[in-house]
């Protein structure tokens, strides 16, 4: 009888231990302001997808409710709001806070830098994530890589751009280090959120703008007010989004909850790039029917952008040790893998 009883008690103990993680799942209710509208394909709908998946994998205990730009905080104020604890977390392209955290724009996009597959490799296996956490720790933010899309277009212009002098005095919207490159080449650069760009182009406040990839640019209606669409997106070979989490809020979470959030964000990276790559060809075909002229910058222009980019990054690295540390890591990783990418993949112009 004692043996049976001990066996029963042991079984109950094992069962209780196995069920403990599920029973101990904490409840998380956060509001997540976004810098992009959820209607923007691959760019703005990734965080809503992540939120929905988190509800499923947690059995409904993790609820990160997304809010459209401006509903909780201004679209360009995600970093400040998370850093100060006004909100527990927010979702944005990384780099709008370049004035306060210069290194941030490197994680958002680097002119002539890594495309999404290589950037992801650097983040997960090249030391990028550790550098990301180090960069934002002084600002009370725990950032999580949570989305990446195909290269942006170089932008929409009212007139043709064939030589560097065409940029002088041009009123152009650009973000991050790409914006600094345009400034170096003589453009008058401003930063506006996506929702304000159509009107700015329509009224002539801007002569041109870059924003995102073809599907998103199409949704914002740029083809109605500018017909010169330039590629490639030299300034943003990858466009990387992050879930910014207030450090105190993050540290309060149990390891199980933290793992669920980070793992689901990793899935979000995969979903975003897959969706982005699936849709761009048909959008370019649509633009052609609408009279948009898709143009590639000529070698003279690309050489000018590349030269100015090297100068900008040298200047920024000299001013900020963290910028230098991260940029050196990125370029070393890119250089190390360049031969593989040049030899291992078919040339893009091969037919």
Count of extended strands? 11
Which structural class is indicated by helix and strand composition? alpha/beta
CATH topology of the largest domain: D-Maltodextrin-Binding Protein, domain 2
Radius of gyration: 23 Å
The geometry reads as: globular
Largest β sheet strand count, sense and barrel closure: 6 strands, mixed
Quaternary state of the chains: single chain
CATH superfamily membership of the largest domain? Bacterial extracellular solute-binding protein, family 7
Number of domains: 2
Describe the 3D structure:
There is one protein chain. The protein has 351 residues and is α/β, with parallel strands linked by helices. It has two domains: 27-151 and 237-279, D-Maltodextrin-Binding Protein, domain 2, CATH 3.40.190.170; 155-236 and 291-321, Periplasmic binding protein-like II (D-Maltodextrin-Binding Protein, domain 2). 49% of the residues lie in helices and 15% in strands. The protein contains 13 helices and eleven strands. Helix 7 (176-184) links the parallel strand 6 (171-173) and strand 7 (188-190). Helix 7 crosses helix 12 and helix 12 packs antiparallel against helix 13. The longest helix has 35 residues, at 255-289. It is globular and about 60 Å long. Mean pLDDT is 92; it is low at 1-23.
């Amino acid at each position: 009888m004692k043996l049976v009883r001990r066996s029963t008690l042991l079984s109950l103990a094992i069962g209780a231990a196995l069920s403990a993680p599920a029973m101990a799942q904490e409840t998380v209710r956060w509001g997540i302001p976004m810098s992009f509208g959820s209607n923007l394909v691959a760019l703005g709908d990734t965080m809503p997808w992540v939120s929905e998946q988190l509800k499923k994998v947690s059995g409904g205990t993790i609820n990160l409710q997304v809010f459209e730009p401006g509903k909780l905080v201004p679209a360009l104020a995600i970093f400040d709001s998370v850093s100060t604890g006004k909100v527990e977390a927010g979702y944005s392209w990384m780099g709008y806070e370049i004035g306060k955290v210069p290194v941030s724009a490197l994680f958002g996009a680097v002119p002539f830098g890594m495309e999404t597959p290589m950037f992801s490799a650097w983040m997960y296996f090249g030391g990028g994530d550790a550098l990301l956490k180090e960069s934002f720790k002084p600002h009370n933010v725990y950032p999580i890589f949570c989305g990446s899309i195909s290269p942006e277009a170089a932008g929409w212009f009212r007139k043709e751009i064939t030589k560097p002098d065409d940029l002088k005095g041009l009123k152009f919207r650009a973000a991050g280090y790409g914006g600094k490159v345009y400034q170096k080449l003589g453009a008058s650069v401003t930063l506006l959120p996506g929702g304000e760009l159509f009107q700015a182009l329509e009224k002539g406040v801007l002569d041109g703008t870059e924003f995102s990839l073809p599907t998103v640019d199409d949704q914002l209606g740029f083809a109605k007010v500018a017909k010169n669409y330039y590629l490639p997106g030299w300034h943003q070979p990858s466009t990387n989004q992050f879930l910014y989490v207030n450090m105190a809020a993050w540290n309060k979470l149990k390891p199980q909850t933290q793992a669920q959030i980070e793992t689901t964000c990793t899935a979000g990276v995969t979903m975003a790039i897959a969706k982005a790559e699936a849709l761009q060809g048909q959008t370019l075909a649509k633009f052609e029917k609408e009279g948009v002229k898709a143009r590639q910058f000529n070698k003279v222009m690309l050489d000018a952008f590349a030269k100015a980019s090297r100068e900008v990054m040298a200047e920024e690295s000299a001013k900020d040790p963290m910028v230098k540390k991260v940029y050196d890591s990125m370029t070393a990783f890119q250089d190390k893998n360049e031969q593989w990418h040049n030899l291992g993949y078919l040339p893009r112009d091969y037919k």
